Amino acid sequence: MRGLIRFERGTKMAATLKAATAKIGNVLLDSKKEWRKKPRKATPQKKRPHYSKGLDVWVHDTSEVWLPATVASVGKDGSLCVKFENGKESVVKPKGDYPQVSGITQYYEETDDLTTLSPLCEASVLHCLRVRFYSGSCSTSAGVTLIAVNPFKELKGCYGEEVVQRYREGSKSNPPHVYGMAEKAYSQMKLGLDPKNQSIIVSGESGAGKTWTARCLMEYLATVAVYNPGGFEPSPGDCIKTRILDSNPILEAFGNAGTVRNHNSSRFGKYIQLQFDRGQHIIGASIQTYLLEKTRVVHQSTDERNFHIFYQLYQGASSEEKAMFGLGLPDYYLKYLPMKSNTAKKLEDCQALKTTREAMAGIGLTLTHQREIFQVLSGLLHLGNICFTSDGEHESCDIDEDNKDYQLSSEFATRLLGLDEEQLEKCLMFRKITATHSKRKSVFMRPCTVEEAGTRRDCMAKLLYARLFDWLVSFINKSTCAGQWHSFIGLLDIYGFESFQSNSLEQLCINYANEKLQQHFVAHFLRAEQEEYSIEGISWQFFRFADNQPCLDVIEGKCSIFSLMNEECCLNRHTEASAFSTRLLDSINGKHINKPPVTVRYPAFVVNHYADDVTYNTQGLIEKNKDHIPIELIELVANSTKQFVSKLVQTDLAEHEIQPVKSGKMQAKTVVSKFKTSLDSLMTILTSTTPHYIRCIKPNLACVPDIFDSGHVVSQLRACGVLETIAISAKGFPARIAYAEFQQRYQAVHNSIQAATGINKDKMAKTFCVSLMESVFGDEDKENETAGTQFGKTKVFLRSGQLEELERLRAFALMEAATCIQRCWRRYQRWHKVRRLEAATLIQAAYRGWRVRLCMEIMNDAARVIQHAMLEYCIKKQQEKELQRLELEATKKLSLEKSLAHVDDCHNADSCSSEDEQEFHECRDRLSVAREHSILLSSPNHESHPNNQALQPPSVGLIDLQHPSGLALYNSGILPRRCSKCGSVTNPQPEQHGSELDDDEDADDKEVRHDEDIQTTQVGLGGTLVGIFKKPAVDFALAAVVTALLLKGPVQL
Question: What are the transmembrane regions (predicted)?
C-alpha cells in the first residue's frame, strides 16, 4: 500500500489516514481484550429503602437503643423527620434500613414467643421484652431458649403448688415459664428418644437470677416425679424430695456471698443430677461442684461480704453458743468478717440460720455434727485475728503480742480447732525447707517474714474451709444419691460472667467457664444445627453467628494464658507481674488479647470475651495458680485433737505422701489445670445429653425492681447470640429423627406401609415417613418446601409443633391399643375366673360327695359296731336269763330228785295207786330232760348246737385298712380285715365285752366288772343303756358319728 500510494508528511490526507488507522487499531485491540476477559456479572444496585410519610419505624436512640417513631416527612437527601410517641420530633439520616414497627403495644404484650415477631429484628425483640417486663411477664420463649428477666421482686401467682400442677398437665395454653422448661425436659426424658438424659443449662451474668431459677427447676421436678404407690403419708418420695430440696439452703449458706453486683452471688458452680428410675420417678440426686472461691474467706473487696454462713452464725447463734464459740464479744473485731450489716440484714441472717439448721437436720446432720461444723467456722474467724510483727520489712517475724485481741484469738482458735498453740505459732512463723542430696535429705527451718506468715495463716484458713465445704457436699451426696438409676436430668448453675475494677484468677476462671458454656451452645445449636442441615441435603439458608472459639484458644490453647501460667508455676521461679504480662502479650497472637488501657496503673492484660472486654491484674496471679499448701500445715491439722477436724485433711495428707518426686521437684497440679479438667468432664456430660437453655437477663446494674436498662439488656442479648438463636429457631427444625426410629416409634399411628419385595429397609422407612407426614399434615408441606417438613438422607426434620402433634396421635393410638389389650385381658380374666369357678364347683361337688360317702361309711361302720355291741349284750343277757332259768330248774331238779327219791322210797315202802305211778314216771322224765339240757349248756360246743344258731350275732363283714374308719375299727379290735396280698381274713383280738374276759385279768377287775353287771341288772333299761355306751367300741363309734356331723357344711375355697 505504501508502495502504491505515497503521501507526504504534513499533508492533510496523511493526517487523516493516520488517525483512521489508529482508530481501527484501538477497536481491534479492545475487541481482543474483551474476548480474552471473562464476562462480568452485573452487580445489582442496592435498593434503597423506601420511606413514606406516616410509616412507623424503629429509630436508634442513645438511652433506649431503639424507639418506635412515625415518619413525618422525607428529605431530598434521604433524611427523615420522625416523630416519637412523646411528641418530640427529630431529623435522622438512616445509615441502613430502619425496621418497621408492626402492631401496637398490646401486640407485644401478648407475644410470648419471639420467633413469631414480624419483622424479626433486634428492635422488636428488645421492645417485646421491655413491654412484657413492665407488665409483669418476665419469661419469654425464644425458640429452643427461654429468656428469663430478673424482676428483683416477688411476683405473686407465678410460683407455688398451684402453678406446678397447672404446668404438670402440659397444656399448650400455659405461658412460657421456668416450670414449662422443666416439664419439657421431663417429658422428653419420658419419651425415651436418644439421648434420653436431659440437661438444663442456666446461664447469665452475675445477679441475673440463675440460682433462683435452678431452685425453681429443682422444686418442680422433685414435686412432679414423687413416687407414692401405696398412698403413704408421708410418702417415700416425699422423704427423698425433702432431702434434695434441703441441700439448697446448705449450699447457698456455705457457697454464696454478697458482691457489688449481686447480694446472693454463687461463688461456686454446681451440676445437680436428679436421678430417676424406669418409671420416671425421682429416687435420688448427686451434686458436683466446681471451683469454690475460697479466697473470699480471707479477703473481700470493698462493699462485699464473706460467705453467708459466717454472718448467720455470728448473728443467729444462741447466747450459750456465742459464749462457747467466742462470738459477739465486746470490742472484739474479726478481721475475716467485715460487719456492715444493717438491722434488716441482721434479722435476715438470724432467720437464715434457722433455715440452714432445719436443712442440716433434714439431710441427716445430727446436733453433734452441727456443733463441730460451727466450731470449725468460729475457729477460722479467730485464726484470722492472729497478727505478726517484725523490726524490718524482710526480717523474721514474731507474734504481735501487743495486740489486745491476740490472747483471745489464739485461745479460741486452738481450742475450737483442737490445735497445739506452740505448734501453731511455729508452723506459721517458720517454713520447712527440704534439700535432697543424692540419697540424703536435709530439713531446714527458715523464719518467715510478716507477709509470708500472714499468707500461711490465710492458707490454713482457706484449706479448712474448702475441705469443710467438700465434706458437706460429700455428706449430701451420701444422703441423696441413689445406688442405681435409669436416667437423669442435670441442672447446671454456674457463676455468671464477671467484670470488676480489679479482676484476678477467680474472675479469669469464672469467665472461662462462661466461654465454655457459650461455645457449647454455639457448637451444639448454632453451628452443628446448620452443618447437619447441609450434610442431610435439605434446603437451608446459612445464618452467620459470632463464634467465640478464638477467644477460647487464647485462654486454653497450646500457647495460651493457661499454658504460660502453668509453665511459670513449673519453673518455680519468681517472676515480676509486669514481666509476665509482657510475655503474655508477646507470646499470644490474636485479636482477643490486648494491652490494657493507658488509664490502668497496674500490670495487666485485656481479654475480649463474648460478653465484654475484661482487664485482668497479673499481680499475685502465679501464686494463686500454684495454690501451694505447706505440708507442715497439713500435718498440724491432721494431728488435731478434734477428730472431725483431723478427718478433713486426711485426703491431702495421703496425696502428699504418694505424690511422685522428679528431679527434686513435686509435680503438683495447678488451679487452672484442675479447673480445666473438671470443665472438660462437664462438657462431656452435657454433650451426651439433650440440652435445654435458659438465658437469665439482668435488667439493670443496680439490682432494683421496675427498671429496664435497654442498653444493658441488649448487650446481653448480643453477647448470648439470642438474635441468631431466634432466627434459626424460627426457620429451623427443632426435632429430627432417623427414619428407622421414626417408623418404629410411629408405626402405631399409620400402618398403611407394608414390607414390599425388592425395597430395602431404609427406603421403606423413608417412604413410611413421607406417607405418614402426608396423611397427618396433608399437603401443607408441598405448598412451601422451605417451610414444611424436610426429608434428609437419613433423618426427617420436623417443624415446631409437629413432633407434639405426632406424639399426641401416638398417645391416642397407644391408648386405643391399650384399651383393646385391656379389653382382651379383662375378657381372658373373666373367662379364666369362670373356668376357675366351674372347676371349683366341680371340686366342691366331688369333695362333698366323697365327704358324704365317707360319712356314710363311718356311720355304717358305727351302726354295725353298735349293732354288734347290742347283739352281744342282748345275747349275754339272754344267756344270763337262761342260766338263771337253768339254775332254777336245777334247783327244782334237786328238789325233784329229792322228791323222787322220797317217792322211790315211798314207792318201795308202800304200794301206790296207778295215778301216783303215772305222776312218778312223768316227773322222772322231766328230771332226765333237765339233766341233759344242763349238760349241753356246760359243754364247749354249745354255740354249734343247732338249737343255739339263732343266738349267734350277725356278721359285720370284712374291712379295708386303707379306709380310716376301717383301720380305727380294726385297731379297736371290733372288725376283722382281709389282707390285700393273700386275701386271708384276720380276726382282731376281741375287746373285753361282757363275760368274754382274758384269762390274765386279775381278780380285782373281775370283781369290779361283776359288780357293774349286777348294778346294771338291778337298774333295769336305763342301766342297760348306760352299760352299752360305756363300751370302748361304742365310744369310738359315737366319736366317728360326731366327727362326720362336724364335717358337714359348705366348702370354702
Answer: none
Of 3.30.160.20, 3.30.70.330, 3.40.850.10, 3.20.20.380, the CATH number of 134-384+462-501+685-705 is: 3.40.850.10
- Is residue 208 marked as binding? yes
Active site residue 211: yes
H or E element in which residue 693 lies:
strand 690-697
Q: Is 264 a catalytic residue?
A: no
Looking up cell 507477709 gives 451
Mean pLDDT of 495-508: 88
Give tens-digit pLDDT for 671-683. Answer: 999 999 999 999 9
d(CA 109, CA 453): 61
pLDDT band at 562 (very low <50, low <70, confident <90, very high): very high
Active-site position among 262, 385, 409, 789: 262
Where is pLDDT greater, at 734 or 26? 734
237 appears as a binding residue in the annotation:
no
C-alpha cell at 505: 484468677
Q: How far is CA 892 from CA 899, 902, 934, in A?
A: 10, 14, 13
Indicate yes or no: pTM above 0.85. Answer: no
User: Does 266 participate in catalysis according to the annotation?
Assistant: yes
Determine whether 262 is an active site residue. Answer: yes
Q: What is the pLDDT of residue 996?
A: 43
41 labelled ligand-binding:
no
Catalytic pick among 150, 206, 414, 548: 206
Choosing from 180, 362, 496, 792, the catalytic residue is 496
Strand order in the sheet with 139-142: 139-142, 145-149, 690-697, 198-203, 487-493, 269-276, 282-290
* 211 annotated ligand binder: yes
H or E element: which one contains 511?
A: helix 505-521
Catalytic residue among 223, 265, 503, 560: 265
Tens of pLDDT along 285-344?
A: 999 999 899 999 999 888 889 999 999 999 999 999 999 999 877 777 888 988 766 667
Tens digits of residue pLDDT in 744-763: 888 877 654 444 334 444 55
206 is in an annotated binding site: yes
**Model confidence pLDDT, tens digit, residues 213-266:** 999 999 999 999 887 665 555 566 668 888 999 999 999 999 999 988 888 899
What does the block give as the cell for 251? 449450699
Higher pLDDT pick, 98 / 971: 98
498 labelled catalytic: yes
Of 207, 269, 379, 490, the catalytic one is: 207
Catalytic residue among 64, 293, 452, 498: 498
Instruction: Identify whether 206 is a catalytic site residue.
Output: yes
Nearest in space to 315 (alpha carbons), one of 295, 342, 335: 342
265 is catalytic: yes
The answer to the question of whether 209 is labelled as a binding residue is: yes
Is 207 one of the annotated binding-site residues?
yes
pLDDT tens-place string over residues 350-394: 999 999 999 999 999 999 999 999 999 999 999 998 888 887 766
Indicate which residue of 139, 211, 286, 729 is catalytic: 211
CATH 3.30.70 assigned to 735-800: yes
What is the CATH T-level fold of the domain 508-679, as seen in this structure?
Answer: Methane Monooxygenase Hydroxylase; Chain G, domain 1 (1.20.58)
Instruction: Encode pLDDT of 1003-1036 as tens digits.
Output: 555 454 555 554 444 444 445 555 555 555 555 5
Catalytic residue check, 496? yes
Residue 314 near residue 328, CB atoms below 8 Å? yes
What are the sequence ranges of the domains in the chain? 1-36, 56-101, 134-384+462-501+685-705, 397-455, 508-679, 735-800
Average pLDDT, the chain: 78
Provide the strand spans (E) within 570-677: 593-594, 604-608, 613-617, 661-662, 665-666
In 10 A of CB 242, how many CB atoms? 15
**What is the architecture, at CATH level 2, of domain 56-101?**
Roll (2.30)
